[in-house]
Amino acid sequence: MMGDHLPLLLASASQVRADLLHGAGLPFDICVSPVDEEEAKQRLSSEPDALAMELARLKACAVSLDTPATLVIGADQVLSCEGKKFDKPRDMKEARKNLSFFRGKTHTLHSAVTLALDGEIVWSHGDRAHLTMRDFSDAFLDHYLRQAGEKILKSVGCYQLESVGVQLFEKIDGVYFTILGLPLLPLLEELRARKVILA
Q1: Nearest-angstrom CA–CA distance, 181 and 169
Q2: What is the C-alpha separation between 124 and 56, in angstroms, rounded?
Q3: Is domain 8-193 annotated with CATH 3.90.950.10?
Q4: Known catalytic membership, residue 76
Q5: Which tens digit of pLDDT belongs to each residue from 88-131?
Q6: Contacts of 6 (CB under 8 A, 6+ apart)
Q7: Higher-confidence position of 172 and 3
Q8: DSSP for 163-189?
Q9: Model's pTM, two decimal places?
Q10: Is the pLDDT assigned to residue 4 strictly greater than 70?
Q11: Across the strands, what pairs with 115?
C-alpha cells in the first residue's frame, strides 16, 4: 500500500481518526501534539473554518518540528450552531445542555486536515458538513444519554454518528469522514500525489 517515500505520523490523540487511517490501510505512527488547544483558541481566529484549519496546522507543525523527514497529519474540527461555537462537553450535564440546544436545529461541523514536513505546512484541506437534529423528546434525550454514556464527551457534538448517535438526526448533508473529523478522501488523494501511497 505504501510507496517508497516518507513515513507518516498522526498528530492526534483521536481514536476515531486513528481508526479511519487504519481502516484505509495506512501504516502510520501516532505522536500527540503538545499544543494547548484552549490557550490557542484564545488567540486564533474566531471564524469556525479558519479556527479548525489553524488548530490543525498548529498541531501538525508542533510535531513536525521534532520529526524531520516525516509527513505529519494534523486535523481538527469545530462545531457551530446559530453563531455559537461549541467545544467538547466537560461532563454529562453539559452534554445534555448542548444537545438540548442543538435539538430541532441544523449545526455545522467544520473539519480541517493538513500535512506538515520539517516544520512547514505543505498541504491543507477544509470541509463542512451540516447536520439537522430532530426535535426529540426529553424522555428520548435521557434515554440516549444513559445508552451512549461518557464516550460522547470525546465528541464536540455529543454524539458518535457510527453508533447510537445516529438516532438524534433527521437530515445529514455532508461527507461521512468530514463528520468524523478527518476529510479522508482528499488526504488520500494528496498522499497518492506525493507517492506516499500507491496510486
Answers
A1: 18
A2: 9
A3: yes
A4: yes
A5: 999 999 999 999 999 999 999 999 999 999 999 999 999 999 99
A6: 69, 70, 71, 117, 194, 196
A7: 172
A8: TGGGGGEEEEES-HHHHTT--HHHHHH
A9: 0.93
A10: no
A11: 73, 123
